[in-house]
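Private note to self, pasted from the team thread so I don't lose it. Backbone tokens:
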């Protein structure tokens, strides 16, 4: 197993595993690659990434296990590494691993990744644990609501992992083209985004997703190098940014309501 920092050249096709902490990313990584990565949690560990590979249809996919993050807002070294990897390495496929027992909480990251890339698969893991709690996720409704493929897995027993590999291949090869539902942040914010995009395109000339960068600026995240220069453009939009983030959260809640059923009526 190799450890490395997230900059440099990676073999292609490149697959990234993203997700909230403790959703089973490393378990899935190990199962797909046959590697034995330590899956424990401990604080203060250096942010390193595990790289491995798997074959599907005679194609060797390089796969990277990103650190667990709740968002891509670069609030911590983990978030910064995950965000920079997704933005700069532009993986061919990003699998966002979510926890079926608390899907709503996980959708925030899913929606953020959907703002950066189209090549996304949502993996709803821990369905065995969810079942025990009487929670069932309808993958076809969730997939329709999000506009991206959804695969249910129980990584510990290997359930759904073959389907996951097949879906990675289909998204990579273009057999399936996800079309993520992008949040409409409302007139004011969308206007601010539209005004910022030309400046971002001019500055970064296609290296990062301009809509995502515009949203970051409006949300007050200036951590990407050189974004500061664009900040002045968004000075008038601070108030709307809070509104936009609020809407993002609410969207997660709405999606959660339809495809997730709890037979016990418990709060998910
Ligand atoms: N029951 C059950 N347990 C699982 C499943 N997937 C992972 N686990 C367990 O959940 C725990 C966390 O799994 P990890 O693979 O370490 O999760 P992670 O997302 O890599 O965690 P971080 O790297 O800390 O973000 C481990 O004890 C796994 O054995 C699953 O589908 N079902
Ligand atoms: Mg892990």
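Design output:
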């Amino acid at each position: 197993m190799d450890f490395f920092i997230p900059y440099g050249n990676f073999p292609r096709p490149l697959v990234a595993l993203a997700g909230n902490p403790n959703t089973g990313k490393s378990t899935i990584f190990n199962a797909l690659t046959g590697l034995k990565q330590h899956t424990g949690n401990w604080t203060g560990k250096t942010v390193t990434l595990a790289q491995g590979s798997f074959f599907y249809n005679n194609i060797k996919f390089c796969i990277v296990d990103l650190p667990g993050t709740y968002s891509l807002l670069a609030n911590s070294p983990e978030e910064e590494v995950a965000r920079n990897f997704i933005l700069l390495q532009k993986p061919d496929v990003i699998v966002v691993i979510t926890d079926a027992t608390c899907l709503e909480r996980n959708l925030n990251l899913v929606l953020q990744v959907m703002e950066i890339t189209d090549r996304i698969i949502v993996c709803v893991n821990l369905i065995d644990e969810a079942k025990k709690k009487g929670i069932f996720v309808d993958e076809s409704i969730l997939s329709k609501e999000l506009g991206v493929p959804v695969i249910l897995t129980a990584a510990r027993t290997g359930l759904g992992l073959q389907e996951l590999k097949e879906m990675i291949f289909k998204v990579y090869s273009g057999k399936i083209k996800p079309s993520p539902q992008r949040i409409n942040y409302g007139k004011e914010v969308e206007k601010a985004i539209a005004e910022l995009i030309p400046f971002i395109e001019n500055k970064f000339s296609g290296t990062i997703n301009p809509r995502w960068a515009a949203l970051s600026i409006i949300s007050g995240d200036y951590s990407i190098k050189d974004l500061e220069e664009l900040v002045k453009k968004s000075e008038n939009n601070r108030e709307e940014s809070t509104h936009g983030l609020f809407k993002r959260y609410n969207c997660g809640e709405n999606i959660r309501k339809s495809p997730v059923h709890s037979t016990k009526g418990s709060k998910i």
